Each structure stands twice: as C-alpha cells, then as structure tokens.
C-alpha cells in the first residue's frame, strides 16, 4: 500500500516545487497559475482517496450474516442484472443448500461475471457459461468466457490487491473474491481455455446443517 500512496505523492511534490520556482504574484496570469496548481493537487488527492478507499474495502469486508440459501436461486438472481442473451446457466435439478452470507456470494459471482464480460472484445459475440456441479460434499461453480484470456505476465498477479489491467479498475475485486472464498474454506482458481477465454473455478465445501 505504501508504494501505491507514493505514486500520487511524487507528482504533488513536483507540482508544488515547480509552482514555488515560477510563481510571480505580480504576473498577469498569477490567478491562472494558482488555479492550475489547485486542480493538479485536487486530482492527486482524489487518486489517494481512491487508493485508501479500495484498500479499506478490501481489509474490512462487511460482517458476515450466514443463512441457509438455495444456491441455484441466489446465483440466478446474481446473473439477472446482466444481459441474459450471452449467459448460459447450468445447475442440477435438485436444490443445493448452503450456509453462507448471501450478499458476499452475490458480490463474488457478479464480480467474476462482470470481469469476464469486460474481457470479451467488442467485435466478438459474448458467451459466458456458468455451471454448478456437486460431488459428494464439494461444490464447484465454474464461470467460462470467450474473452482474450489472461496474459502469462499477469497470471501470478490477478489476486494481488491493486493489480489491474483496466484504466479505471481498483484492483480490489478479485482479491476480495479470494478473501471471501477463503473465509469459507473455499478456493478460487483460473485457467486459460484451449481456444479462447478464461475459466474461473470456485470450490466450496457444502456446510449445510
């Protein structure tokens, strides 16, 4: 986090030093120079605020309120905010019950599906397959897309806080997903598909009582 905070501090320091060297209160453009400095500093302060807020959100997840849920129903509800045309949802016919915080699970599913959609080029018809499977007491949720896949240089960084390949991303989404899953003794992994896209796999123990 210290490194991330230092990034905006450097241009702030340079802005102030440059202003001190060149500012002339008697110049005709003195007011414009002060306004320019103010806007530059405010921009960097906003950047700092974004960084601190993102790390705060990651470090302090909301309190868990575990309840017994119907997994298929909750995931179906999570997917309903997206365009149904490009999502294929497959689940067993029989209900799967799980004790988990519903809002946390919704955050996990929507985060991964949103990332998947954003990784699909605009010229390509989007397709995201979400599948629930159950083997004994182990639950698996698979989310497969037909996007650009994960570059080799990024594979070891996806779950590191503040790492992002997006110009406007916070880099907290996937680390948050991993933290939530681990709090339930679960895992999240990913792999590039043989042809196109990426598959994320969530594994959870079925803890129904």
Question: Strands, helices and their partners?
Answer:
Blueprint: H1 2-22, H2 30-59, E1 66-70, H3 71-79, E2 87-90, E3 97-101, H4 102-118, E4 128-135, E5 138-145, H5 173-183, E6 187-192, E7 198-205
Parallel strand pairs: 2-4
Antiparallel strand pairs: 1-3, 4-5, 5-7, 6-7
Low-confidence runs of at least 5 consecutive residues:
none
Return the string of H and E elements: HHEHEEHEEHEE
Our measurement of the CA-to-CA distance between the termini, rounded to an integer number of angstroms, reads 40 Å
Question: Averaged pLDDT, please?
Answer: 81
Helix content: 40-55%
Number of strands: 7
Q: What is the assembly state of the chains in this entry? A: single chain
CATH topology of the largest domain: Heat Shock Protein 90
Strand content: 15-25%
Global Rg: 22 Å
Structural class by secondary-structure content: alpha+beta
Kindly provide the name of the CATH class of the largest domain: Alpha Beta
Number of domains: 2
Q: Count every helix, treating DSSP H or I runs of 4 or more residues as helices.
A: 5
**Main beta sheet, described?**
5 strands, mixed
Major β-sheet strand ordering: 2-4-5-7-6
CATH architecture of the largest domain: 2-Layer Sandwich
Shape by Cα distribution: elongated
At the fourth level of CATH, the homologous superfamily of the largest domain is Histidine kinase-like ATPase, C-terminal domain
């Amino acid at each position: 986090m210290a490194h991330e905070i230092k990034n905006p501090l450097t241009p702030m320091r340079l802005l102030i030093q440059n202003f001190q060297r060149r500012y002339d209160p008697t110049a005709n453009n003195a007011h414009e120079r002060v306004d320019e400095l103010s806007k530059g500093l405010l921009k960097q302060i906003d950047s700092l605020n974004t960084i601190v807020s993102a790390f705060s959100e990651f470090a302090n997840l909301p309190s868990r309120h575990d309840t017994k849920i119907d997994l298929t129903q909750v995931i179906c509800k999570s997917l309903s905010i997206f365009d149904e045309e490009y999502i294929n949802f497959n689940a067993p016919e029989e209900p799967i019950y799980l004790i988990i915080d519903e809002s946390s699970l919704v955050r996990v599913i929507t985060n991964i599906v949103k990332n998947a959609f954003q990784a699909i080029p605009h010229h390509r018809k989007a397709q995201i397959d979400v599948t629930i499977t159950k083997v004994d007491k182990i639950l698996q949720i698979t989310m497969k897309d037909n996007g650009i896949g994960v570059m080799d240089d990024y594979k070891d960084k996806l779950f590191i806080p503040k790492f992002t390949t997006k110009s406007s991303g916070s880099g907290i989404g996937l680390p948050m997903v991993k933290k939530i899953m681990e709090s339930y003794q679960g895992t999240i992994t990913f792999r590039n598909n043989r042809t196109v896209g990426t598959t994320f796999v969530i594994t959870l123990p079925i803890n129904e009582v």
